[in-house]
Amino acid sequence: MPQTDESSLNSARAALVEALIRTGQDDRDAFRTVYTMTSAKLFGICLRICVDRQGAEDVLHDVYITIWNRAGAYQPGRASPISWLATIARNRAIDWRRRQGRNRAAPVDEADSVPDGTLRQDDALLAAEASARLHQCLEAIEQRQRGAIRSAFFGGLTYAELAERQAVPLGTMKSWVRRGLLALRGCLDAGT
């Protein structure tokens, strides 16, 4: 990757970290910046899991309320800003889906068709770099763990749904995901 692209990625990441920190200090302009930089990505996560567009919009609203209330707890050294935000979106969307009694997530193709008019070039580069690193690290972990993590985090399935699909006890599935996440974190940490 050329030096200028890496510099742009680092600059975008630093801007998001700074905006999150300032949001934690009740800075409304910083919160607006966080929304502008992340709303398209987080909406895609919500839509993929919720399936229903109106539901995804409602969940996204809840996601940003949560971000506003919890931004002060964000610790830059523990997680990348987009990972922290995506986890909030994923958890809120799964909670919504459970309340709705839905059993399946939408196919990934539907989430990819969401219009994205707000994504800036530096955000796109940052997302591409993070995605490539994540997928590289996913390929390095054990196959059962990799499959469980992909189904849970990219497909929006719960532990119970994963255990049922794989015909294994719930505790076994939780162990697979936990061990896989630990291995994934080790790989991602080694790359930073």
UniProtKB/TrEMBL annotation:
Transmembrane segments: none annotated. CDD domains: Sigma70_r4 (cd06171). Keywords: Sigma factor, Transcription, Transcription regulation. Pfam families: Sigma70_r2, Sigma70_r4_2. Residues 39-102 form the RNA polymerase sigma-70 region domain. Signal peptide: none annotated. Residues 133-184 form the RNA polymerase sigma factor 70 region 4 type domain. Belongs to the sigma-70 factor family. ECF subfamily. This is Sigma-70 family RNA polymerase sigma factor. The lineage of its organism: Bacteria, Pseudomonadati, Pseudomonadota, Alphaproteobacteria, Sphingomonadales.
